């Protein structure tokens, strides 16, 4: 399989040195995200296109390569092609017939040709000859350059002919690793996940920082969605997931800060800790999912007061976005279901939160706050490489595992729906139900408590984590299905 990768248009207007660096980084990222599928994948080209070639013939593996490339920042789209030595016009017709002969009978079509290099003919000459011959030889209904049912697309580059049979969309943006690093404050909801995606799409390396206000279930949920975002859109780079225990900070605010200033104070405490972490890790900017006036703490006066605690640049990619637009983007990138099923936690609930915080007043309120509590939270922050976060979480968890499921059991397949669809779990005589891991915490309590349930996933890590959590929640009827 051969692919022609077209880079994000904004890259092509950069100065030659910058452009080459971006293309070089993109090639490196493509190799990184496909290394486990094809360690010998070839990526060539250094200017405006990259040619990707794999000798892998397995259809499922090829499809996985295509899906991963569609989520690599820096690619606007890529073409799936077959390459041939360039012959005469009749030879071009024969090569096109190999791919389009069965599609053209009775259909309206057009021929599109792009050409690079020196040739004694133009692209229009090629289009006219190939179009007329395909119409005669393949029984097409006609040619329409404006509204064809089928486009026959070819490219001629010097002495090579590319016959294009698929165009796959990319996500655009700049290649990860070509720009600076950021630290995204993650809650796991719609806003923070979409903000993280937007920053990654722009080519900024994205680390994740979670402030745990509500226990293990919420932390696990945020870890899962952060891992999903990284694995789908950022796996070419190794980044960190940072979890900061903030329950004591929250308790200090609830006990000592005026009700109307609790929300603003909490955000200021989060920015203080995030800034210290970013400074330690040499990260250039902080990112939040805030949008103007979506909640009381996000008015312009409040955001100004919140930002005053840090000298770090605070980026807010969603600042002027409507909530429905954010939700629609979350649906498109695959984080909406995570957000909908994110475990609830008891945060700061102000009866009459201020929308116009005064700097002198918030300073007065924070004088009551014991800053040693904040220092302890910073000291207890856990930093984990995102590619190992799920595995490391499951290392010390011991849950009973069964290698065989019995007819009396119900096996719950907690894998992502895409994985379930591609490789469904089928067990003779055993009831198998699909329930994605991000929905498990909410939906498990609706199941028949008299049945015995076995959780299943590919590696056994996610199933152990969720079984352990459900056992701690008081559900004694859950174990892990781990076939030999």
Summarize the structure in words:
The chain has 484 residues and is α/β, with parallel strands linked by helices. It has three domains: 2-169, VC0802-like (2-Layer Sandwich); 179-393, Rossmann fold (3-Layer(aba) Sandwich); 397-481, Rhodanese-like domain (Oxidized Rhodanese, domain 1, 3-Layer(aba) Sandwich). It is built from 18 helices and 19 strands. It has helices at residues 9-12, 16-34, 59-69, 89-100, 123-138, 190-201, 216-234, 247-256, 262-281, 300-307, 323-333, 336-340, 359-366, 371-379, 389-395, 417-422, 437-443, 461-472, and strands spanning 2-7, 42-44, 49-53, 75-85, 108-116, 142-143, 150-157, 160-172, 181-186, 205-212, 240-245, 285-287, 313-315, 382-385, 401-402, 409-413, 431-434, 452-456, 478-481. The strands form three sheets. An eight-stranded mixed sheet has the order 2-3-1-4-8-7-5-6. Strands 13-12-9-10-11-14 form a six-stranded mixed sheet, with helices on both faces. The protein has a five-stranded parallel sheet with strand order 15-19-18-16-17, with helices on one face. Helix 4 crosses helix 5 and helix 8 runs antiparallel to helix 9. The two termini are 34 Å apart. The model has no long low-confidence stretch (mean pLDDT 90). GO terms for molecular function: ATP binding; CCA tRNA nucleotidyltransferase activity; tRNA binding; tRNA-uracil-4 sulfurtransferase activity. It holds the Pfam family ThiI. This is tRNA sulfurtransferase. ATP binds at residues 185-186, 267, 289, 298.
């Amino acid at each position: 399989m051969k692919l022609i990768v077209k880079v994000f248009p904004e890259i092509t207007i950069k100065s030659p040195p910058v452009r080459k660096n971006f293309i070089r980084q993109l090639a490196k990222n493509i190799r990184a995200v496909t290394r486990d599928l094809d360690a010998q994948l070839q990526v060539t080209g250094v200017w405006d296109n990259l040619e990707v070639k794999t000798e892998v013939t397995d259809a499922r593996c090829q499809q996985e390569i295509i899906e991963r490339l569609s989520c690599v920042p820096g690619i606007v789209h890529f073409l799936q092609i077959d390459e041939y030595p360039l012959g005469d016009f009749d030879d071009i017709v024969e090569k096109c017939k190999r791919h389009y002969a069965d599609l053209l009978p009775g259909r309206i079509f057009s021929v599109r040709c792009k050409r690079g290099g020196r040739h004694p003919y133009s692209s229009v000459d090629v289009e006219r000859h190939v179009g007329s011959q395909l119409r005669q030889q393949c029984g097409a209904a006609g040619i329409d350059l404006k509204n064809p049912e089928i486009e026959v697309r070819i490219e001629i580059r010097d002495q090579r002919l590319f016959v294009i049979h698929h165009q796959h969309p990319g996500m655009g943006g700049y290649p990860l690793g070509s720009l600076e690093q950021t630290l995204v404050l993650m809650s796991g909801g719609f806003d923070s996940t979409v903000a993280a995606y937007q920053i990654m799409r722009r080519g900024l390396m994205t680390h994740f920082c979670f402030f745990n206000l509500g226990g293990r279930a919420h932390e696990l949920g945020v870890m899962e969605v952060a891992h999903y975002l990284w694995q789908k859109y950022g796996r070419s780079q190794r980044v960190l997931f940072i979890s900061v225990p903030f329950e004591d900070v929250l308790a200090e605010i609830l006990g000592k800060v005026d009700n109307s200033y609790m929300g603003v104070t909490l955000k200021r405490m989060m920015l203080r800790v995030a800034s210290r972490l970013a400074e330690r890790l040499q990260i250039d900017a902080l990112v939040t999912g805030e949008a103007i006036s979506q909640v009381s703490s996000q008015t312009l006066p409040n955001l100004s007061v919140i930002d005053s605690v840090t000298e770090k640049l605070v980026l807010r990619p969603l600042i002027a976005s409507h909530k429905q637009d954010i939700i629609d983007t979350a649906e498109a990138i695959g984080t909406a279901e995570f957000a909908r099923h994110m475990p609830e936690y008891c945060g700061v609930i102000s009866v009459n939160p201020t929308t116009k915080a005064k700097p002198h007043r918030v300073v007065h309120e924070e004088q009551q706050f014991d800053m040693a509590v904040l220092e302890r939270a910073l000291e207890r922050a856990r930093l984990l490489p995102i590619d190992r976060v799920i595995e490391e979480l499951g290392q010390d968890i011991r849950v009973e595992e069964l290698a065989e499921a019995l007819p009396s059991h119900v096996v719950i397949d907690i894998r992502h729906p895409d994985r379930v669809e591609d490789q469904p779990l089928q067990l003779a005589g055993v009831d198998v139900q699909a329930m994605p891991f991000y929905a498990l915490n909410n939906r498990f309590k609706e199941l028949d408590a008299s049945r015995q349930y076995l959780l299943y996933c590919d590696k056994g890590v996610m199933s152990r984590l969720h079984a352990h959590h459900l056992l701690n929640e008081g559900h004694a009827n859950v174990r892990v299905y781990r076939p030999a």
